[in-house]
Amino acid sequence: MKPRNYSSEGVVLARRNFGEADRILVVFSKHFGKLSLLAKGVRKPKSKKRGHIEIFSQFRFSANRGKGLDIITEVEIINSQQNLRKDLKKVAVCYFLMEAVAKVTHDEERNLNLYQLIIDSINKLQETNNLKGLRKDYIYKLLTSLGYWPIEKVMSDPDKELEKVIERKLYSIRVGRKILEKAS
Q1: 70-79 and 33-39 beta bridge pairing
Q2: Span 74-114, pLDDT tens digits
Q3: What domains appear along the chain, each with residue ranges and CATH number?
Q4: 57 near 81, Cβ under 8 Å?
Q5: What is the rounded distance in angstroms from the CA atom of residue 106 to the CA atom of residue 119?
Q6: Model confidence at 72, in pLDDT bands (50, 70, 90)?
Q7: Phi, psi angle pair for 28, to nearest 5°
Q8: Is the full-model pTM beyond 0.85?
């Protein structure tokens, strides 16, 4: 169980608006796994946290346990991934990476190897042009690290195997495939 006040670093997997000025973030943290956190007042124009908690940004945060959602109290950016955001194809692949982790993992299950896989994959994505290869490699590593796929077995259709695990289709798979097909 998390302490009342805690700190960690994490990557924003998803976000959605909540109320007039708040936002709910799904974060994969280094020390606590996947968390749903409430960022109060972040949608206000003068909010200091506003630019630090964009999707696939890596940041340090402090939070307080709440009755429903934990509340973010402090944020410090580590890497905003600005170079990545300039390329639409890479952004689409990164959305896929984040959605895959969000759907496959459970709340508050710490997995340091998975956290490192996310960070390493985002960094590789900024440097590579082999986006299809990166996606396939990421799905394979994701499913093997979580125990859904044997380590030595070859994966012929990674997207299909991922959809079997989460038992539904991912929106970003369809969008990402179309963008990558146009690039080829």
Answers
A1: parallel
A2: 999 999 888 898 998 899 899 999 999 999 999 999 999 99
A3: 5-79 (2.40.50.140), 84-183 (1.20.1440)
A4: yes
A5: 19
A6: very high
A7: -100, 115
A8: yes
